Amino acid sequence: MLRIVSGTVGGRRLKTPKGVEIRPTQDRIKQVIFNSLIEIVEGASVLDLFGGTGSLGLESLSRGAEKALFVEREIRCVGAIKENVTLCGFDAQSRVIRQDVNEFLAHPTGEQFDIVFADPPYEKIRSSLDESPFLLAVRPWVKPGGLFVWEHFSGQRLKGPQGWTIVRDRDYGETGLTFLRPQG
Questions:
Q1: Is 19 within 8 Å of 90 (Cβ atoms)?
Q2: By the 8 A CB rule, do 141 and 108 touch?
Q3: Cα 62 from Cα 178, distance rounded (Å)
Q4: What is the 3-state secondary structure (H, E, C) of 142-153?
Q5: What is the pLDDT of residue 13?
Q6: Helix (H, G, I), strand (E, B) or coil at 12
Q7: pLDDT at residue 22 is higher than 80
Q8: Containing H/E element for 101?
Q9: Which is more confidently placed, 121 or 108?
Q10: pLDDT digits over 45-74, tens only?
């Protein structure tokens, strides 16, 4: 059962797309993430990359974020995100874009976000995290002082990503969470 953990719509069950294999963020991982974001999520602008069901962006809105942009390429997932946005009553605060995330990131619009989430399919980014073009591409989308929250395979570590400061880097079972802040 996929649900919103806390906030104004805490406990609300979310729709999952049929016929699509997704790996939604577990409740205990969401708790870890949002316990770390408690002081900045209120009023924040959020970018949810690899949106899936929209779980992370919706959790942010439930906890007081001002707006969320969801980016997802799979049409059935886009439909599930839109359903979940409506189900939670966040239509006015949400935008959903159907596009490949790497393609989206390659064309910065100047819009930046307080919090950027990325929970990509793990097999897509198996290389060294430091050398990932994805890490470089996401940088222009994060506001100065904002945070990039990256969910990845446990055991993968950044050693000194150019343009970033590692705020937190821990493993929780098979899941690794790295919180990064842009430098400068």
A1: no
A2: yes
A3: 22
A4: EEEEEEEEEEEE
A5: 96
A6: coil
A7: no
A8: helix 101-105
A9: 108
A10: 999 999 999 999 999 999 999 999 999 999
How confident is the model over 113-169, as pLDDT tens digits? 999 999 887 654 554 555 567 888 999 999 999 999 999 888 777 777 788 999 999
Please give the structure tokens belonging to residue 17. 């797309």
pLDDT at 158: 78
Instruction: Spell out the domain ranges in the chain.
Output: 27-182
Sheet arrangement for strand 142-153: 94-98, 67-72, 45-49, 113-118, 142-153, 175-182, 164-172
Architecture of domain 27-182: 3-Layer(aba) Sandwich (3.40)
| Cβ burial, residue 172 (10 Å; 0-12/13-18/19+) | middle
CA pair distance 73, 117, nearest whole angstrom: 16
